Amino acid sequence: QRRCEASRAPLLPELVPQVIALLPPVMACTAGAAAKVWPSPHLEREHLLTEAKDDVVDLAFLPDGERLVSVGARGTVTVWSLSALRPELVFTLSDNGACSALDTQVFPDGERVVTLMSNRRIYVWTVSTGEVLQNMSSPVEHQEVRVIHPGDRIATGLGVSSIDHSVLIWSTSEGQVLHTLEHDDLVVALDVSSFGEKIATADRTTVFLWDV
C-alpha cells in the first residue's frame, strides 16, 4: 500500500476535527433512550422519538432520508420511520445485551449497515429484516468504522489500547482482513474519500494518505 506523509506539524489529539455528515432536511441527536429530530436549518425540535429500548450511543441516517438507525449501549438496534415516527424494526446484536455498540455506518445501497461493538465483533446486517450477513471478530478493539465506496470493504481504527497503532481494511463478503495499515503512534483520526480511492489517517503529529 502506497502512502503519502504530510508535513509533521504539531497536532494535539484533542484538536483533530471530527466531521459528521448531516443529511437534509433533518438533523438528529441523542438524549438517553430518546432520539430527537429537527427540521433544518431551524433548530426547533420537530419530533421526539421515545420508544428506544436502550440508551442511544450512535445514529445513522439511511440514504433515503426517511429512516434513521439508532444503536444502544446494550447492542439494541432500532430502525426508525421518520414519517410514521415509530420503530420499523428492533433487535439486539450482542448476546444478552452484554456489549455496547461503538459506531454504525450505512452502505451506499441503503440496505446494509455495519455496526462495530465493544466486544470486538463487527456485524453487517440488513435494514429490512435485521438479518446478520456477516459476523466478524477483530484481533484488536477499535472504536470507529468507515465504509469504503464502492463495494463491500470497510476500515476500522482508533484502537483502545495504547500499543495498537493499526487501521484494518476488511472485506465484508469474505469476512476477513485484507490489509493492515501500520502507524508509529496511536491513530487518532480516520476517514475515507467519497469514492473510496483514498483513506486518510492521523496519529498525534502526522497525517497519512493511503491508496486503497
Description:
There is one protein chain. The protein is an all-beta fold and 212 residues long. The chain has strands at 3-5, 26-31, 34-39, 47-49, 56-61, 67-72, 76-81, 86-92, 101-106, 112-117, 121-126, 132-137, 142-147, 153-159, 166-171, 176-182, 189-192, 198-202, 207-211. Helices cover 0% and strands 50% of the residues. The strands form five sheets. Strands 1-19-18-17 form a four-stranded antiparallel sheet, with no helix packed on it. Strands 5-6-7-8 form a four-stranded antiparallel sheet, with no helix packed on it. Strands 9-10-11-12 form a four-stranded antiparallel sheet, with no helix packed on it. A hairpin with a 5-residue loop joins β13 (142-147) and β14.
Provide a brief overview of the structure.
The chain is an all-beta fold. It has strands at 3-5, 26-31, 34-39, 47-49, 56-61, 67-72, 76-81, 86-92, 101-106, 112-117, 121-126, 132-137, 142-147, 153-159, 166-171, 176-182, 189-192, 198-202, 207-211.
Q: How does the helix and strand content classify structurally?
A: mainly beta
The 3D shape can be described as: globular
Strand content: over 45%
Q: Specify the number of helices.
A: 0
Topology of helices and strands:
Blueprint: E1 3-5, E2 26-31, E3 34-39, E4 47-49, E5 56-61, E6 67-72, E7 76-81, E8 86-92, E9 101-106, E10 112-117, E11 121-126, E12 132-137, E13 142-147, E14 153-159, E15 166-171, E16 176-182, E17 189-192, E18 198-202, E19 207-211
Antiparallel strand pairs: 1-19, 2-3, 3-4, 5-6, 6-7, 7-8, 9-10, 10-11, 11-12, 13-14, 14-15, 15-16, 17-18, 18-19
